[in-house]
């Protein structure tokens, strides 16, 4: 079997075309969706992510701003900017690009964002709402993964899903969304004893670790849907995921590539959340 490629660029473009129409309709009524991105420090990868987000806003008829600070900026200056953006009616979403420099307490910074503008969905209120299955901003990466299943018609009800990685921004919300969708979910992490045994049972396998080649074809159940969230940079500068793509695609039924899989969908769902926030603000 050679797996069908789940193309995040193509699906992202399809969804963004619809967002653009909604954004234009909203702008015609006087509200242009607005996203503000805060970047602290000079991490090269973070700069690329921020640039991609800002470009995506421009292509989708959103207003966007970036606020870039040196790594030694006072924490209070960043908190003051967040307070200013919380009160700014042009801004419907505020995103603080992670990771922050070590001296920052990321939790304190994220909690400073007004819940109504927390389009990354990282605040405790949003996490609680997600667990309870209440309306909330769904964290963009797992939200994008769910769109792959929806678009490709991959069933989740009653399926065995294995999520490798338990971070607050990917693994945990991913597990929650799959559980809400009716899958039986196992979460594996750095202390898991027999990763291969768990992965081999998975109809749906999500890798969100950050380790090149962690998941090989031999660890995949024939016919599984494999979603590779990992982004790793090789010595030659190329990007790859956590899944050994060549061996995995011979076993899986569906697979996401890196790059061009989950990455573009994360940005797409950031636009979705910002648009939703703007629509809520316009109808309030
Ligand atoms: P993280 O470092 O916060 O979490 C990694 C998780 O992997 C941890 O829960 C840890 O327990 C687990 N882990 C570590 N070693 C393991 C092992 N040997 N076996 C099983 N589990 C192990 O990372 P994160 O923020 O969740 O990101 C994970 C990866 O996804 C990274 O490569 C990151 O760059 C990427 N990422 C991609 C996107 C995207 O849009 N494509 C978005 C966010 C993160």
What name does CATH use for the topology of the largest domain?
Rossmann fold
> What gyration radius follows from the Cα positions, in whole Å?
19 Å
Ions, cofactors and other bound molecules:
nicotinamide-adenine-dinucleotide
Which structural class matches the secondary elements?
Answer: alpha/beta
Distance between the termini: 51 Å
What shape does the CA trace take?
globular
Residues in helix, %? 40-55%
- Give the percentage of residues in beta strands: 15-25%
If you had to describe this structure to a student in words, what would you say it looks like?
The protein has 284 residues and is an alpha/beta fold. It folds into two domains: 30-114, Rossmann fold (3-Layer(aba) Sandwich), CATH 3.40.50; 140-263, Rossmann fold (3-Layer(aba) Sandwich). 42% of the residues lie in helices and 15% in strands. It contains ten helices and eleven strands. It has helices at 8-28, 44-59, 75-86, 106-111, 124-132, 140-152, 171-180, 195-200, 245-248, 262-283; strands spanning 4-5, 34-40, 63-69, 93-96, 160-164, 184-188, 204-207, 225-228, 232-233, 239-240, 254-255. Helix 7 (171-180) links the parallel strand 5 (160-164) and strand 6. Helix 2 (44-59) crosses helix 10, helix 6 (140-152) runs parallel beside helix 7 and helix 6 (140-152) crosses helix 10. The longest helix is centred in the C-terminal third of the chain and has 22 residues, at 262-283. Bound molecules: nicotinamide-adenine-dinucleotide.
């Amino acid at each position: 079997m050679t797996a069908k490629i789940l193309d995040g660029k193509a699906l992202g473009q399809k969804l963004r075309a619809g967002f653009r129409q909604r954004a234009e309709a909203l702008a015609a009524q006087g509200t242009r969706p607005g996203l503000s991105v805060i970047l602290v420090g000079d991490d090269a990868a973070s700069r690329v992510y921020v640039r991609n987000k800002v470009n995506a806003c421009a292509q989708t008829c959103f207003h966007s701003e970036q606020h870039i600070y040196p790594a030694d900026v006072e924490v209070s200056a960043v908190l003051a900017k967040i307070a200013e953006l919380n009160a700014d009616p042009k801004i419907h979403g505020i995103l603080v690009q992670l990771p922050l420099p070590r001296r920052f307490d990321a939790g304190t910074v994220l909690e400073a964002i007004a819940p109504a503008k927390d389009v990354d969905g990282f605040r405790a209120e949003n996490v609680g709402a997600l667990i309870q299955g209440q309306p909330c901003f769904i964290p963009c990466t797992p939200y994008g993964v769910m769109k792959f299943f929806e678009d490709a018609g991959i069933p989740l009800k009653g399926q065995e899903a294995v999520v490798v990685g338990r971070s607050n921004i990917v693994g945990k919300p991913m597990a929650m969304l799959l559980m809400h969708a009716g899958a039986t979910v196992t979460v594996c992490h750095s202390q898991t004893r027999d990763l291969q045994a768990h992965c081999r049972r998975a109809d749906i396998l999500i890798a969100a670790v950050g380790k090149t080649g962690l998941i090989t074809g031999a660890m995949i159940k024939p016919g599984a849907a494999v979603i590779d969230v990992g982004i790793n940079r090789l010595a030659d500068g190329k990007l790859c995921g956590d899944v050994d793509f060549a061996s995995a695609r011979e076993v899986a039924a569906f697979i996401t590539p890196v790059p061009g899989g989950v990455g573009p969908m994360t940005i797409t769902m950031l636009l979705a959340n910002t648009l939703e926030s703007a629509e809520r603000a316009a109808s309030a």
